[in-house]
Write a structure and sequence with these properties.
By secondary structure, this protein is an alpha+beta fold. The chain is about 50% helix and about 20% strand. It has a domain at about 245-440: Nucleotidyltransferase, domain 5. Helix 10 crosses helix 12. Bound molecules: zinc ion.
């Protein structure tokens, strides 16, 4: 089945330094959130609670009566979310346990066909699995019960059930979280305002206002991650993104990536022209900060400000990269993008000279964003073999060399922008490979 939606996480960042008092109030919530989750893991994570976790109302009711919420003084919006958060983890773990048992049973040569059919049925029907693990009577709807009895009649049930119990004990792990700097937040517990977000605190009617770097507003469950050392926070927003399919996107585009110009196409169009300049500014700043840090080692006031600044500068660069990638899609309208494999991190040669800049080059980030955006726009991203891609002539296939960004062919005399030449090679190689593939499959 084709799915036309994907999930992606976008992030929001606090704009200014978060006052200590507010950070403390948020940390208290995160801490309580962690306490509730660990309580749920302890109380309901074992085999004894297997029948309570689906759909989870029993747990919710028992937790309401437990008195834990009152003891912590945690607002119910956080309390119940922590419960369902932890229950989700427990359910996910049981799914994994069943998966492992299924695999182990598959490898076990002592089982015959009837044994396997019985085990498969039990692993598929949760009530059945839960009852067996807990040693309780199996209560199934009529039709299912007939199927079950039919399968059970052909096997040694005691042997298989104790196998299931042993395997479950073997694979079940005690869940526990140490996350004391983050919590989920439902839309009842926050409200966006102009330039920021108001987050419910433990004090009645008191909300904590956090200015954000963007004005986006979401209506869904968010995850707040605190960085107390750096006096900042990040909000992770899971988004369901509709994949866009553009009828008018029908071009084949070869690209080559660079440290200075982010992308150059086979037509010589450049996107992210200022990437090099921004990277150098960033690298120079990092170096200057490191020098200052070394010099003032004795009287060092901590690096909070440094991390906040670094974060901000990096966010600015990412913002630029994304805007330029968007422009690439709008203007090139690609159906297929041919992309040479990016050079590895430790590559010698041209990159070595600019070692520091190369290190600061957001190569991995660019690559990830390009991949993501191709998925979102239903564009095929075809990675091509990159060997000699910069030293071969896109016109005649002969060898040439690049001097100061200009490629000259030794064989046919062609001269042109080196990146453009490489992008053209990417397109040629990609097309050749695809052509061969089509020949094979037709
Ligand atoms: Zn040539």
């Amino acid at each position: 089945m084709l799915t036309n939606r994907i999930c992606k996480t976008t992030r929001q960042y606090s704009r200014s330094r978060i006052p200590e008092k507010d950070m403390e109030a948020l940390q208290v919530i995160a801490c309580d959130y962690c306490t509730v989750k660990n309580y749920i893991y302890r109380r309901y994570g074992g085999a004894g609670s297997l029948d309570k976790i689906y759909p989870g109302y029993t747990v919710q009711n028992e937790m309401t009566e437990s008195g834990l919420r009152a003891a912590l003084g945690l607002p119910s919006v956080y309390f119940y979310l922590a419960i369902f958060d932890a229950l989700g983890d427990i359910k996910a773990q049981w799914t994994q346990v069943k998966e492992k048992i299924r695999a182990a049973a598959g490898r076990n040569e002592n089982f015959g066909g009837a044994d396997r059919r019985y085990l498969r049925f039990v692993l598929k029907v949760h009530v059945c699995f839960a009852a067996i693990i807990q040693g309780k009577e199996i209560k199934l709807p009529r039709k299912m019960k007939d199927t079950f009895d039919g399968l059970a009649g052909l096997v040694d049930r005691r042997r298989l059930d104790s196998y299931l119990k042993r395997q479950a004990r073997k694979h079940l792990r005690r869940l526990c979280t140490e996350e004391r700097n983050g919590f989920s937040i439902s839309k009842k517990a926050y409200r966006y305002e102009k330039d920021g977000i108001c987050i419910a605190s433990k004090e009645p009617r008191k909300r904590i206002f956090i200015p954000l770097t963007d004005g986006n507003q979401y209506e869904r469950q968010l995850f707040v991650k605190l960085y107390p050392q750096e006096q900042r926070l990040e909000i992770a927003v899971p988004l369901d993104v509709q994949i866009k399919s553009h009828m008018h996107y029908d071009n084949e585009v070869g690209i080559s990536a660079g440290m200075f110009a982010m992308l150059t196409t086979d037509q010589g169009n450049v996107y992210g022209e200022r990437l090099g300049e921004l990277t150098m500014q960033y690298a120079d700043w990092v170096q200057a900060q490191a020098k200052r840090h070394r010099e003032n080692k004795e009287s060092n006031p901590g690096r909070k400000k440094y991390y906040a600044q670094k974060q901000k500068r990096q966010a600015q660069m990412h913002c630029y990269i994304n805007a330029e990638l968007n422009r690439f899609f709008e203007e090139e309208r690609p159906k297929t993008v041919y992309f040479p494999k990016l050079p590895g991190a430790g590559r010698a040669g041209a990159v070595r000279k600019h070692n520091l800049y190369a290190h600061m080059w957001q190569r991995g980030y660019i690559r990830r964003r390009l991949e993501q955006k191709c998925i979102e726009h239903s564009v095929a991203l075809v990675e091509v073999y990159a060997k000699d891609i910069s030293t071969i002539c896109s016109q005649c296939g002969g060898f040439g060399k690049s001097v100061k960004g200009i490629f000259s062919c030794r064989e046919c005399g062609y001269q042109g922008d080196a990146k453009e030449n490489a992008a053209r090679n990417a397109k040629n190689r990609g097309r050749d490979a695809q052509g061969r593939h089509e020949e094979r499959t037709t």
